[in-house]
Amino acid sequence: MTTGDGSFGYAQARVQARLGQRVSAADLQRARGARELSAYLQHVRSTGLARRVARVAPGMDVHEVERRLRDEWRATVEEVAWWLPAPWRPATLWLRWLPYLPALQKLARGGRAAAWTREDGVLARIIAAEPGRRAGVLGGTALEPLQAAVAAHGEVGQAWLAHWRALWPADAEARSGLDRLVGDVIDATTVLAELGPEAHSEETLARLDRRLLRALRRHPLSPVAAVAFLGLEALDQLELRGAVVARVALAGKAP
Hints:
Elements: E1 2-3, E2 6-7, H1 8-20, H2 25-32, H3 37-44, H4 62-81, H5 89-93, H6 101-108, H7 124-128, H8 134-137, H9 147-151, H10 156-167, H11 172-195, H12 202-218, H13 223-253
Antiparallel strand pairs: 1-2
C-alpha cells in the first residue's frame, strides 16, 4: 500500500489526528455569539480551526479575507495529497480548484467577471484577456481541463468532475467509494439549491457531515478516507467563511 513517501496507513493516521482536533459544535456555538470579527477570531483561534484564520485579521475587506481562505484551502489539499501514495496525488490535487468553479461558470455563461477575480492569483490572467479569448488563456494552466467547457459555454462543474474521475487510478473499490461520495455531495448541493440562499440549510449540511464521517470510517485505508476528510474540511471552511464575511460586512455598515 505504500508508494513514494505517502501511504494509506500514514494518511489514515494523519486524518484521525486532525479529526481529534476538529472544532466541536459547542465551540462553534460560542464563536457564533461574537458580534465583532475580532471576538469571533479570538474564539476560533482556541479551536482546531485556528490554522484556517492565521492570516485573517480585523480591518481586511471581504475580498482579501476570501482570497486568504482560498489560499488556505489550496494549502490544505496539497498537504493531504502528500499523505497519499503517489498515484492518488493528481486526483487529490485537482480538488484545489473547487472554490473557483462558480467564477469560471459565470464566465462560461458570458457573465461579467466579479471585481475580486481581477486580483486573484489564479484567475487574474484569465480575466485580463478579452472575453472571447479567456478560454484560450486556460490552455497551459492547471485549469486547462476546463477549457472546452468555458469555450463552449458549458457546465464547468461537470467538466471538473469528469476530469477528476479520469484522474482516479484503476482501483475498483476506491472508485466505487468515491462515486458514492460524489452522489452524497450532489444530493446535498441539489437540496441547498432548491432551498435557496435564504433558507435554513444546517440540517442538510449536518446530514452531509454525517455521511462523510461514515465514508471515512468505512474506508480507512483508502483514498476515500482522505477525500471524505477534505469534504469535512470544506464544510468547516463554509461555516468559517460565512461567519467571517458576515462580520466583515457588518463592520463596513457600522456608523
